[in-house]
Design brief:
By secondary structure, this protein is an alpha/beta fold. It has 21 helices and 37 strands. It has 5 domains: 99 residues, Ubiquitin-like (UB roll) (Roll), CATH 3.10.20.740; 164 residues, Alpha-Beta Plaits (2-Layer Sandwich); 225 residues, Rossmann fold, CATH 3.40.50; 117 residues, Dimethylsulfoxide Reductase, domain 2, CATH 3.40.228.10; 100 residues, Beta Barrel (Barwin-like endoglucanases), CATH 2.40.40.20. Helix 4 packs across helix 5. It is globular.
Length: 815
C-alpha cells in the first residue's frame, strides 16, 4: 500500500509480504509468487491433482487442478472464462477463484478429465498394490462420474514390465503425470526413464537401445511385448514408486505382500547410514511380519525421500539367518540353550575378568542405538573395571581431536560454499547427496570437492582437488580452495568418514577462513557412540576420561570410582589376547580394515561372546552367542551426522527370545554380580539423557594425528559403495542383483603406462595381500590412484589393507 515518506514527499509503493486472494468466497493471505494450488491447500481448500508435487516444478500435465479465475480470458466463441490450472498459476493481489466446490463448470470439467483418464485405466484395484492408498481411486470417488460412457475395449499391454530388479512398470495404469520422470530429471539426476512416442501412443519407459529401431519420430521404440534389460538402476527409484499416484510403478519387494489397511504403521529412523532419514515401518497385523519401509516426511532431514538401500535393504530382519535364542559352544559346535544356562556359563567363564584376575573388553558396531552404547561402556567400566570399550572399527575420532557435530542440513544447504573432503556423498550418505544436488541445480549452490576420483557431485564442482588417498591434508594449503573459502560469506566444510585423523588441520583452515566444519561419518550412529562414551578415552556426554572432574561427575551417578587409564582401542583389544572379548553388533572379520588382525584377535581371545542379530562367520569363533533385536523390534534413539537424536520404535516383537542389546548387557552385569541398572529402555535413556543435558563445555581440540604425505607410487583408495556385499543388504534379492561387480579403477595414463586395457583382468597387490579383478580405465580418477571398492561380491579391498596402513602402496599387473 502507498505510504508517505515525509511531508511533501512523493508516494512510493512498498512491497507487501502477502497478497489477499479470495477462494470460494473465503478471503485469506498468500505469499507473493506462491502457486495457487499450494496457497489454497495451506488455507484448507483442497484442489484435486495428479501431476503437481510441491518439491518439483509444475507442468500442468493432468489438468485435474482446473479452477475458474475471475478476469481470465474467455473460451473462444463462448462467454465462459477459460479454466486455469492452479498448479501453474501464481497468486496476485485481489485474485478471485472458484474451485470445483463453487463452480459447476469446473466440477463438470474435472469429471470429464477423470472419465478420460479412466478410459484405458484397468479396473484391477483389487490386485493393485496401490489400491487403498491411490489418489486416482479417491478422486474418482469424490469428483468422478458414477458411470462411464465408454464401452469400447480398453488398451492392453504386457504387465508388469520389470524395469529394474526393484521396480515394476504397469503401462496400462499410467496417466502420464510425469512425476517419475520429473523426479529423475530434476532431483536425483538419474535420467533413466522418459516418455516414449507421442500423443495417445505416449508411454513411460526406460531409456535403452533396441536393435537400433526407432518409432518413426526419432525416438527409441520400446519392446512392448518382449523382455528388456532392467535399466532403471537409480539409487532413488523407490521414490518414484511412492509418489506415483496410480500404481503404474510398484515395488517388486512389496508386490502382493499386503493391503494398506492390513498394515500397522510405526514411525522410526533408518539405521543403514548416518543420514537420519525418517521412515514408516509397515507391519502386517495378521502375521506380525514387516512388509515394507517407506519414507516419512521430515523437513529437517530427508524431506520425504529415501534411498533404495534404506527402503529395500532390510530383508535381514526376517531372514532365516536370524538368531532367535542363545547358543553355547560345546563339543561338536554351538548348541541352543536357555538364557539361564547361557548366563550361568557366562558367570563361570567370565569370573576372572570380573574379579580382577583377568582382562575383558567390549567392541561395538556403529549401527546400534544410543542406549546400547551407553550401557555397553558402563558395562566395560563397571563390570570389567577398565576402559577397554570402542566402536571405531573403521576408524574415527580420537579423544584429543574431537570434532563436534556443528552442521545441519539447513546450515549446509543455506551456505554459499560447501566443501566436501573425502566424501562420496551419493555412495556414503545418499540423502545428503540428493539434497545437495537439488540445491546445486535449483539454487546454484557452489560446491568444492577434495577427492581422488570423480563422484556424483563432480559435475557441479567449482573446484575439484584430487590428492592421493591419505594426502587430503595437502588441500588445506591449496591456494584456489583457500581463495574460494575466503570469498564465501557462509562456507562450510564436511569431512568424509576417513578424514577424522586430519580434523585438526581442517579446523585450523576453517577458523582462518570463517568456515564451519563438521565430520560426516558413514555409519548410522558414530556420533551417538561418541556422545555415549563408547570410546577408550571418553565418558558419557563428551567428557574426557583424562579429566578428573569429569570422572568425578560420572562416578557420582554410577558409584564406583573410575580407572583413569585410557583403555585399549579396537586394534589394541584384538592384539591383546583378552580373557573375554565381547562383540556387540561388531563384525571384526568383514568390516575391520585388516582381515588378518580380526581373525587373530578372535583366535587369541580366551572367551568370545558374540551379540548380534544374525548368523555370520563370527560364530565360528564364538564361545557364547546372544540373539539381539533389530532396530524395528525395540525402543531407542539414533544420532545422525548432524548430531540430531531421532527415535526408533518397536514395530514388531523380536523373534524367539531375542532381546535389545542394552537389556542383554544389563542382565549380564546383574548375573555377574555387578549390577549397573539400565534394565529397561526408560532407565538407560534417562541416565544417558542426564549426562547429555549436563555435558561439559566442548573441550579445546588438542591436536590429533596428522598423517605423513604418502609419497610416490600408486596408492589404494577404498570405501564402501551404497550397494555391496554387506551382511544386511545382501539379504535383499533386488539389491543383490544391482550390486556392481568388483573392479579396479585406474587412470587412463596409468593404464597406458602399464599396458592394461579397459576390462582386462588384473591383479592388484600390496604388501598385505592381493585381489584379482577387472580393470576399469577412466579419466575420472587421479593419476597414481587405484580404487577398489570395499566388499563387493567375491572381492574386497580388505585383503590389501592393514589397520595401520589403510591406503597402502599397490601395484597393478595384467593377470
Amino acid at each position: 500500500m502507498p505510504v508517505r515518506e515525509s511531508e511533501g514527499a512523493r508516494v512510493t509503493d512498498v512491497k507487501k509480504d502477502t497478497v489477499t486472494i479470495t477462494v470460494d468466497g473465503r478471503e485469506f493471505e498468500a505469499k507473493p509468487g506462491e502457486l495457487l494450488i499450494a496457497a489454497a491447500e495451506r488455507n484448507g481448500v483442497y484442489i484435486p491433482r495428479f501431476c503437481w508435487h510441491s518439491r518439483m516444478d509444475p507442468v500442468g500435465a493432468c489438468r485435474m487442478c482446473l479452477v475458474d479465475v475471475e478476469g481470465s480470458p474467455p473460451i473462444p466463441g463462448s462467454q465462459q472464462r477459460r479454466p486455469q490450472t492452479s498448479c501453474t498459476t501464481t497468486v496476485r493481489e485481489g485474485m478471485v477463484v472458484h474451485t470445483q466446490f463453487t463452480s459447476e463448470e469446473i466440477n463438470s470439467a474435472q469429471k470429464t478429465i477423470l472419465e478420460l483418464l479412466l478410459i484405458n485405466h484397468p479396473l484391477d484395484c483389487p490386485i493393485c498394490d496401490r489400491g487403498g492408498e491411490c489418489p486416482l481411486q479417491d478422486q474418482a470417488q469424490d469428483y468422478g462420474h458414477s458411470e462411464s460412457k465408454f464401452e469400447e475395449a480398453k488398451r492392453r499391454y504386457k504387465k508388469p514390465v520389470p524395469i529394474s530388479p526393484l521396480v515394476n512398470l504397469d503401462r496400462e495404469r499410467c496417466i502420464l503425470c510425469y512425476r517419475c520422470t520429473r523426479f529423475c530429471e530434476e532431483l536425483s539426476g538419474d535420467v533413466l526413464i522418459g516418455v516414449m512416442d507421442r500423443g495417445p501412443e505416449a508411454f513411460i519407459f526406460p531409456f535403452y537401445t533396441f536393435e537400433g529401431e526407432t518409432n518413426g519420430h526419432g525416438g527409441i521404440r520400446g519392446p512392448v511385448d518382449d523382455d528388456i534389460n532392467e535399466t532403471f538402476d537409480s539409487y532413488f527409484s523407490g521414490n518414484t514408486v511412492q509418489i506415483c499416484p496410480v500404481g503404474a510403478l510398484t515395488s517388486r519387494e512389496y508386490r502382493f505382500m499386503a493391503r494398506p489397511w492390513d498394515l500397522q504403521i510405526t514411525p522410526s529412523t533408518c539405521n543403514l547410514c548416518s543420514a537420519g532419514c525418517s521412515i514408516n515401518v509397515g507391519v502386517r497385523v495378521q502375521d506380525g511380519n514387516v512388509a515394507r519401509f517407506s519414507a516419512a516426511t521430515n523437513e529437517a532431514t530427508n524431506e520425504e525421500w529415501l534411498c533404495d538401500r534404506g527402503r529395500y535393504g532390510n530383508a535381514y530382519i526376517s531372514a532365516p539367518e536370524r538368531l532367535t535364542q542363545p547358543l553355547l559352544r560345546r563339543e561338536g559346535g554351538l548348541v541352543a540353550v536357555t538364557w539361564d544356562e547361557a548366563f550361568r556359563t557366562l558367570r563361570e567363564r567370565v569370573a576372572p575378568a570380573v574379579d580382577g584376575d583377568g582382562t575383558g573388553g567390549v567392541i561395538l558396531g556403529e549401527s546400534l542405538c544410543d542406549e546400547d552404547y551407553y550401557v555397553a561402556q558402563k558395562f566395560a567400566r563397571c563390570v570389567f573395571g577398565n576402559n577397554n570399550v570402542d566402536h571405531r572399527i573403521e576408524g574415527g575420532m580420537s579423544a584429543d581431536a574431537l570434532l563436534p557435530p556443528q552442521l545441519t542440513y539447513d546450515t549446509v544447504l543455506n551456505s554459499d560454499l560447501v566443501v566436501l573432503v573425502g566424501l562420496d556423498a551419493r555412495e556414503e550418505i545418499p540423502i545428503l547427496f540428493l539434497r545437495l544436488r537439488i540445491a546445486a541445480t535449483k539454487r546454484n549452490l557452489p560446491i568444492a570437492l577434495v577427492h581422488p576420483r570423480d563422484v556424483a557431485l563432480s559435475e557441479f564442482a567449482k573446484v575439484h582437488i584430487r590428492p592421493k588417498p591419505g594426502d587430503e591434508l595437502s588441500a588445506t594449503q591449496d591456494a584456489t580452495l583457500i581463495e574460494a573459502l575466503n570469498a564465501a560469506e557462509r562456507p562450510v566444510i564436511l569431512l568424509g568418514p576417513r578424514l577424522a585423523p586430519d580434523a585438526a588441520a581442517w579446523c585450523a583452515l576453517a577458523e582462518s577462513t570463517g568456515a564451519k566444519v563438521s565430520w560426516a561419518p558413514r555409519r548410522s550412529n558414530s556420533y551417538g557412540a561418541l556422545a555415549a562414551g563408547a570410546h577408550p578415552g571418553l565418558l558419557p556426554g563428551w567428557r574426557r576420561l583424562a579429566d578428573e572432574g569429569a570422572r568425578g561427575q560420572v562416578a557420582t551417578t554410577w558409584g564406583p570410582e573410575l580407572d583413569p587409564t585410557e583403555g585399549l582401542d579396537v586394534a589394541g583389544m584384538l592384539r591383546a589376547g583378552l580373557d573375554v572379548l565381547w562383540l556387540v553388533g561388531a563384525d571384526v572379520l568383514g568390516d575391520l580394515p585388516d582381515a588378518a588382525l580380526g581373525a587373530k584377535g578372535l583366535a587369541d581371545a580366551k572367551f568370545v561372546v558374540v551379540q548380534d542379530v544374525q548368523r555370520s562367520p563370527l560364530l565360528e569363533h564364538a564361545d557364547l552367542v546372544f540373539p539381539a533385536a533389530t532396530f524395528v523390534e525395540r525402543e531407542g534413539n539414533i544420532t545422525d551426522w548432524e548430531g540430531r537424536r531421532q527415535p526408533v520404535h518397536a514395530a514388531v516383537d523380536p523373534p524367539g527370545s531375542a532381546r535389545a542389546d542394552y537389556a542383554i548387557l544389563a542382565e549380564a552385569a546383574r548375573r555377574l554380580g555387578r549390577s549397573i541398572g539400565c534394565r529397561t529402555y526408560i532407565d538407560a535413556s534417562g541416565e544417558l539423557r542426564g549426562f547429555l543435558d549436563s555435558a561439559a563445555v566442548w573441550p579445546q581440540m588438542t591436536g590429533g594425528h596428522e598423517r605423513e604425505p604418502q609419497g610416490d607410487g600408486m596408492r589404494l583408495l577404498t570405501y564402501r559403495l551404497l550397494y555391496d556385499d554387506g551382511s544386511r543388504i545382501r539379504r535383499t534379492k533386488g539389491i543383490r542383483e544391482l550390486t556392481p561387480g568388483a573392479a579396479a579403477e585406474l587412470n587412463t595414463a596409468d593404464a597406458q603406462r602399464l599396458g592394461i586395457a579397459d576390462g582386462a583382468h588384473v591383479t592388484v597387490s600390496s604388501e598385505h595381500g592381493s585381489v584379482n579383478v577387472r580393470a576399469r580405465v577412466t579419466d575420472g580418477i587421479a593419476e597414481g590412484v587405484v580404487f577398489v571398492p570395499w566388499s563387493q561380491w567375491g572381492v574386497s579391498a580388505q585383503a590389501l589393507c592393514a589397520w595401520d596402513d589403510p591406503t597402502p602402496a599397490v601395484t597393478v599387473k595384467g593377470a
